[in-house]
């Protein structure tokens, strides 16, 4: 079924490298999309111990740009490289929880942790099928959280205080934000050391980025002076369309080296993997998309965004 719509297997080598597949002949002269040189990021060295975690929010108020897919796939790739990863489902839709195949009902969720300080965050952590990748789930209850938190003391810092209780056990915490810039997202940004912005290679996707960066700047001014923009990740890139290439070129023009070298190609394997409740790195380990997320993991380690 997938092969009918998934053309990546038929692309020539240069195009596959644009999709993030490591070319057979690596090194000198390899060019990625937008003709930037493609670095062969080294495999991360094993860690001697774990924690404290660096917290990264995956954030974009535009819907459907690949936040959840990136949280799952990057988390799984980092876990393959021996990093201890905790993924936080911070969207009432619960797509991250579903994509990782964990329970969301009759279990403590992130909502319970935000609302009650008496719940131990460790009791909400669930293991996934990927060794080293754990998750705190969410369900539709979370949609009521903004209303409940509005009158709390230090309402923007509640997630940060929850994560402080578990971050020593992990190397990285990835927060899958909902598509909004409301109080939950501000909580995620306040709790984070870094932000990763998945950006769909589509013209209208560019329009919201200025507002998102403005929000990050406000959070830096008022709540979290240390927050950094770790990178902008181009997703759903289709090297066969001029449109995708033009959008990527514009993004690089505007944001320079904040744009990660790794580019995630468009492929129907992702929806297929979500249905299976498994990360792409397990569902189709040799697929270009799985390789692209491993490359992203290596790039983020090389940049120092992850230990
Ligand atoms: N590189 C890709 N190629 C093709 N489809 C993709 C790709 N990445 C994600 N998708 C699919 O696009 C849809 C939206 O992706 P995803 O849920 O990751 O986005 P999101 O930003 O988390 O969305 P939301 O804002 O609703 O939370 C999903 O069906 C997913 O399977
Ligand atoms: Mg999502």
UniProtKB/TrEMBL annotation:
Looking up CDD domains in the UniProt record yields: ParAB_family (cd02042)
Q: Where does the AAA domain lie?
A: 54-228
Domain of life of the organism in this record?
A: Bacteria
Where are the stretches annotated Disordered? 15-39
Bilayer-crossing residues are none
The record, for InterPro entries, names: AAA_dom, DNA_Partitioning_ATPase, P-loop_NTPase
- Record's function text: May play a role in septum formation.
Give the protein family: Belongs to the ParA family.
Instruction: Tell me what this protein is called.
Output: Chromosome partitioning protein
Where does this protein come from, organism-wise? Microterricola gilva
